[in-house]
Design a protein that fits this description.
It is built from three helices and no strands. By secondary structure, the protein is mostly helical. The longest helix has 38 residues.
């Protein structure tokens, strides 16, 4: 587990016991456990959201045919022409 052996874990436990005392150690362990479980839950929710978005994205692209692709290309072309036309007078002043 993370390259840490039993001896190192015992040493870390003893250091925590000496530094924080026996009264605070159970509370700290409980807080650490809650943090780890909340972090795991957040990671799982994030994974589920990514998978759901990926599946939703695939389904929305499946229904598109060649007509939709042509229409998208035409719209992009028109937008590019409009940007070029707006920047043309500025380029002449340089």
């Amino acid at each position: 587990m993370f390259g840490i052996g039993i001896q190192e874990m015992v040493l870390v436990g003893l250091l925590c016991l000496v530094i924080f005392g026996p009264s605070k150690l159970p509370d700290m362990a409980r807080d650490l456990g809650r943090f780890v479980s909340e972090a795991r839950r957040s990671v799982e929710e994030f994974k589920e959201d990514l998978v759901a978005e990926e599946e939703g994205g695939r389904e929305s692209h499946k229904g598109r045919g060649p007509e939709a692709s042509r229409e998208l290309e035409e719209n992009v072309g028109r937008d590019e022409d409009a940007v070029i036309d707006r920047n043309a007078p500025r380029a002449e002043h340089l």
